[in-house]
Amino acid sequence: MTKEEFTAKWNNMLEAQRKLDERIIQGNGLTYADLYNSGRYQHALLDELGELNHELKANWCWWKKTQAPVNREKVLEEFVDCLHFVLSWQLASAIITRDRYQSSEVAWKAYESHCSCSPVDVAVHIKGEQFMKEEYRIPPVAELICLMNHLNFTIDEVYRAYIQKNKRNHERQDEGY
User: Do 96 and 129 contact (CB within 8 A), yes or no?
Assistant: First the structure.
């Protein structure tokens, strides 16, 4: 995977997320500032990380002999749900702070470094009262890519699953979700 290929996929996901976000934000009478300043992105991401962690339960639940094995497709689906909120958070951050933070560059560096972290590591980065402090308000883009690496997903797998879920999220909006 070249940097250009990776960046193209990342930027395509950001653009798809922007279109979905604008639809949801306008449909609910909100603004990016409402969501960004309230910590809702962090709360939503923590919730999705919990769902992802639950899908990985067979990897860490040593006391339950009847624990179902990890289902890679369900894990990918939950990871993509996390990705939706990180992309949304990134878009809001760029608009609200007028920051030149380049998430595609951060994501590429994390991808290229082959870093690895668990859902718990990402949650620790954003949890508690710390996330309202300015230094913690940068979306955890690198951490999410490290999580993708930890889960052994490729950017191609993630991209395909993201585009599919984004389409489903638009359908849900059509249905009054």
Answer: no
Amino acid at 143: E
**pTM of the complete model:** 0.91
Number of H helices, E strands in the chain: 9, 0
Taking the C-alpha atoms of residue 6 and residue 105, their distance in angstroms, rounded to an integer, is 10
8 against 37, higher pLDDT: 8
Average pLDDT over residues 112-122: 89
Structure tokens at 69: 């094995």
Question: Which option is the CATH number for 3-174: 3.40.50.300, 2.40.50.360, 1.10.4010.10, 3.60.60.10?
Answer: 1.10.4010.10
What's phi and psi for 56, nearest 5 deg? -95, 10
> Given the structure tokens 């949650």, which residue do they identify?
123
